[in-house]
Amino acid sequence: MIKNIPYWRLSSFYWFYFATLGAFIPYWGLYLSDAGYDPVQIGQLIAVIMSTKIVAPYIWGWIADHRGNRLTIIRIGAILSLLGFSSIFLVNGFWALFLVLMVFSFFWNAILPQYEALTFNHLGKKADQYSWIRIWGSLGFVVAVTIMGWVLMSMPVSQLPIVVTMLLAGIAVSTFLVSEHNGNEYHEAHTSIVQILKRPEVIALLTACLLVQASHGPYYTFYSIYAEEHGYEKSWIGLLWAIGVLSEVVAFALMPWLVKRFGFRNLLLASLFSGSLRWLMIAFFIDNALLITFAQIFHASTFGIYHAVAIAYIHRFFKGNNQGKGQALYSSVSFGVGGAIGSLYGGYLWESQGSTLTFILAAVLSFAAFAISWKYTRN
User: Fold this and answer.
1) Quick check: 325 pLDDT over 80?
2) pTM for the full model?
3) What is the pLDDT of residue 312?
4) What Cα–Cα distance (Å) separates residue 6 from each residue in 2, 161, 181?
5) How far apart are CA 37 and CA 41, in angstroms?
6) How confident is the model over 148-169, as pLDDT tens digits?
7) Is residue 189 part of a domain?
8) 1 part of a folded domain
9) Domain for residue 161, yes or no?
10) CA 157 to CA 182: how far, in whole Å?
11) Rounded to 5 degrees, what are φ and ψ at 108?
12) Portion of the chain with pLDDT greater than 90, in percent
């Protein structure tokens, strides 16, 4: 609990948002495969969700920064993403589904960066406590991915959209539990965002973030399919995802201590290097349940530590009227461009060259991010 902060109300959004992610991302590939789509089509249908992150967060971030009504933007985005996804029950065929996912994700991808900015505004000078609020998102993911793994043992995966719709409704409701807070950053002297983006350390950070998410593309798109092909039951697949995010929870809980002990730069470098190790383990040891379980523990660093450090750097670099645009830019470049590239190359490479080479390339991308950060990142 953080004194004088609406802790539970802020945390409720993260719970529902990442519970939705936990029910959606790990099993969406299985849903699409069950519906008869091939690997290339699956890669494209997941890439469209990622690709809207390229433009949507920045458009909505610009509006929120200039109008000052960030919470209104969040609420509108939550409601429209719910309505957009609900139309999945009315359509059939690849292109109709493609359009539904594009509309849904345009609004869905707009709300998290703005909520991150809202959370930091509520935290004020207690920004180092962000992970204690964000941790509830990870817990929501764990609960959702674990329960869905067991549920799908008896319920057909074709029913997945019903569960996702219910969780999206929870997100919409949670946005009405919090209040607006513009923080104190807007009183600082305004700096052109172009000037910020000319700084080598900012360019390096955003490039590394892009590469990190591109390396995660095959994991988010095909990991569940990959595991199922190698004999893992859906309940065990859900448990593997849960282990990964539980590790992330531990990382978030320890972040204030880790930052004081090791500093942002060392934590970032460790997270990027561990990403290469993780993808190589998945590439070569998928049939070894013990090693694959161990590889999931690396999610503590490849996402938990990485994200907490990256978002802290973004908060440091983008001040004042650039705050919302900075968070949106981080989301657009990393989860948008990087995620879309990861899903697309994952789909094409998976079908033409196989799973092993796909995860080897993911390891190479993570190491490239490590090399860039080693040269340009400072504490």
Assistant:
1) no
2) 0.76
3) 84
4) 8, 31, 11
5) 6
6) 888 888 889 999 999 999 999 9
7) no
8) no
9) yes
10) 42
11) -60, -45
12) 47
The DSSP secondary structure of 109-170, one letter per residue, reads HHHHHHHHHHHHHHHGGGGGGHHHHHHHHHHHHHHHHHHHHHHTTTS-GGGHHHHHHHHHHH
Q: Which two tokens stand for residue 258?
A: 């880790």
Cβ atoms < 10 Å from Cβ of 245: 27
Average pLDDT over residues 230-249: 88
CA distance 303 to 21: 14
Contact 335, 53 (CB under 8 A): yes
Q: Which of 7-16, 52-61, 161-170 has the highest mean pLDDT?
A: 161-170
Q: Tokens for 56?
A: 């949507």
Residue 188 lies in a domain: no
Rounded Cα–Cα distance for residues 115 and 14 (Å): 9
pLDDT at position 182? 63
- DSSP one-letter string for 49-99: HHHGGGTHHHHHHHHHHHH--HHHHHHHHHHHHHHHHHGGGG--SHHHHHH
Paired tokens of 145 = 């991915």
Task: Quote the crossing angle between the two packed helices 306-317 and 234-284, to the nearest 10°.
Answer: 80
Domain that holds residue 100: 8-182+194-376
| Per-residue confidence (pLDDT) for residue 180, from 0 to 100 | 78
Helix residue spans in the chain (DSSP H): 7-34, 39-51, 56-67, 70-86, 94-123, 130-151, 160-174, 193-197, 200-229, 234-284, 289-297, 299, 306-317, 323-330, 339-352, 355-376
The span from the CA of 183 to the CA of 284, in Å, is: 48
Report the number of distinct structural domains present in the chain: 1
Q: Given a cut of 70, is residue 93 above it in pLDDT?
A: yes
In this structure, are residues 277 and 159 in contact, taking their beta carbons and an 8 Å threshold?
no
Q: Classify the C-alpha dihedral 240-242-247-251 as positive or negative.
A: positive
* CATH number of the CATH domain containing 153: 1.20.1250.20
Predicted pLDDT of residue 191: 72
Dihedral of alpha carbons 245, 274, 199, 329, sign? negative
Over residues 134-145, the mean pLDDT reads: 88
Q: From CA 172, how far away is CA 302, in angstroms rounded?
A: 29
First to last CA, the chain: 28
Q: In the prediction, which pLDDT does 2 show?
A: 58
